[in-house]
Amino acid sequence: MRTKKAASSFEVLEKMSREERRKYLDERLKWLVAYAYEKAPATRARFDKAGIKPSAVSGIKDLENLPLLRKDELVDLYKNNPPLGGLVTVPIGDLERVYVSPGPIYDPHHQSEGFWQRLVSLVKSLGFGKGDVVINTWSYHLVPAGHMVDEAMRRAGITVIPMGVGNTELQVQVMHQLKVTGFFGTTGFFMNIINKAEEMGFDVRKDFNLKLACIGGEMGGGQIRKLVEEKYGIATRDAYGTADVGFMAYECSERNGMHIAEEVIVEIISYETGKPVGPGEVGEVVVTPIDEIYPLIRFATGDLAGWIEEPCPCGRSALRITRLLGRVGDAVRTRGMFIHPRQLEPAMVKFPQVAQYQAVVTRPGHRDELTLKVELKGEEGVDKEKLAQELNKVVSDAVRIKVDRVEFVAKGVIPELHKLIVDERVY
Fold first, then answer.
1. How far is it, in rounded angstroms, from Cα 302 to Cα 286?
2. Engineered SS bond to 84: which of 88, 297, 345, 400, CB 3.0-4.6 Å?
3. How far is CA 139 from CA 73, 146, 149, 301, 321, in A?
């Protein structure tokens, strides 16, 4: 049931001066650090290990003195401190949902009103509003993206069709019959639906009511977005988030970088030195959301971006970052999900006949493709067709992304010392 809310304080925050914004966020950060130190045992342990007291944090300028929290550390925390890793400030019985990310990591469903005000403000800033009918194709299974987008849009007065991924022909029928005006999902899957519509004999411009598509989650989508806008007349936007933090940045109508969302503190730091980078330089995105349920302080995303310092003509004063420029470390973002070696290793250990393996991500068209290259210890007595099917199922389940093909290769094709996941996409 939708409830009519008073104008959000976020509308005021959007237009405050940068100096006022800095002071506001300094105060919010001071409160968050003290609160997380008291309520989240893992946060307290991080601070104590670093010899830092909450009182030492007077504002954003002090953040670089605090330790980073990386994804691998989340995996270890959840493993060693069940059920919620000492990171969540309420008991598991007080949560509405718990999501499961690879690791496994158990992300809590966000319940603070400030979190949802942030997301409502974000979907409105993207260009969606009351009267829109939007297909949400983010997954509703295990991961938070589908439910997160769904609830934010419903709170904003938008009608949501919870389609999730797959069933492209049905997606086309629903889009046509319900006169859908908006789309939320990955760039590649959106193009799959558009291509299916054309295969079914539809003229996308004439037969559909699509006006706006928020498509992202994949690198190299710029050319596809240009095609969508010029050929089909559909405006596009992008938003940036992670399963742990939620959406933290968004494009406005100017489409020149992504505004940092309200109640979120973002740093961009040098991966080598850990120091902040200046405008025009590329660094790792580190985020601290103001969230009393899941206060991840200095969460290092592994994503690369840069600052845009110039004011935006839209009038919002929040700093902007560039669209994502890549990843640090070994994880590779594929079809909106990150694949990490830690996911592959426990899956592949089930196949003793495999000597070497490597996951390869390519993009021959409008969709990321995932190939699993496999070198066998010996081929005698091996039913390759059956083994390929088993490998495909086990690895697809482990990484939460469908493997497109399993390719058996000769000895030496995969080097002795090699990355388990390689990105061979060319944009």
1. 8
2. 88
3. 25, 5, 10, 21, 26
Domain boundary among 329, 360, 377: 329
Q: Give per-residue pLDDT as tens, 6-30.
A: 334 666 777 888 889 999 999 999 9
The total of other beta-carbon atoms located within 10 Å of residue 91's CB is 9
User: Where in 130-281 does DSSP place strands (E)?
Assistant: 133-136, 159-162, 182-186, 212-216, 235-237, 239-242, 246-250, 258-260, 264-269
Torsion sign across C-alpha atoms 265, 271, 274, 277: negative
Residue 161 predicted with pLDDT over 90: yes
pLDDT at residue 130, rounded to an integer: 96
| Rg (alpha carbons) of the chain, rounded to whole number | 22
pLDDT digits (tens, 9 = 90+) for 318-337: 889 988 877 776 677 788 77
Stretch 60-76: mean pLDDT, rounded? 92
In a domain, 178, yes or no: yes
**Cis amide prior to 67 (ω within 30 degrees):** no
Q: What would the mean pLDDT of 185-201 be, rounded to a whole number?
A: 94
Single out the residue of 395, 387, 326, 386 nearest to residue 360, CA to CA. 395
Tally of structural domains, the chain: 3
Residue 1 forms part of a structural domain: no
Q: What's 244's domain CATH number?
A: 3.40.50.12780
Q: Is residue 3 part of a domain?
A: no
Phi, psi of 28 (to 5 degrees): -65, -40
How far apart are alpha carbons 343 and 354 in whole angstroms?
A: 17
Contact of 151 with 198, CB cutoff 8 Å: no
- For residue 144, the Cα-to-chain-centroid distance in whole angstroms is 10
Mean pLDDT of 350-361: 93
Assess whether 143 and 216 both reside in one domain: yes
3-state secondary structure of 212: strand
pLDDT score of 208 = 97
Match 């928020």 to its residue by tokens: 214
More confident residue, 265 or 340: 265
pLDDT band with cut points at 50, 70 and 90 for residue 220: low
- pLDDT confidence bin for 111, thresholds 50/70/90: confident
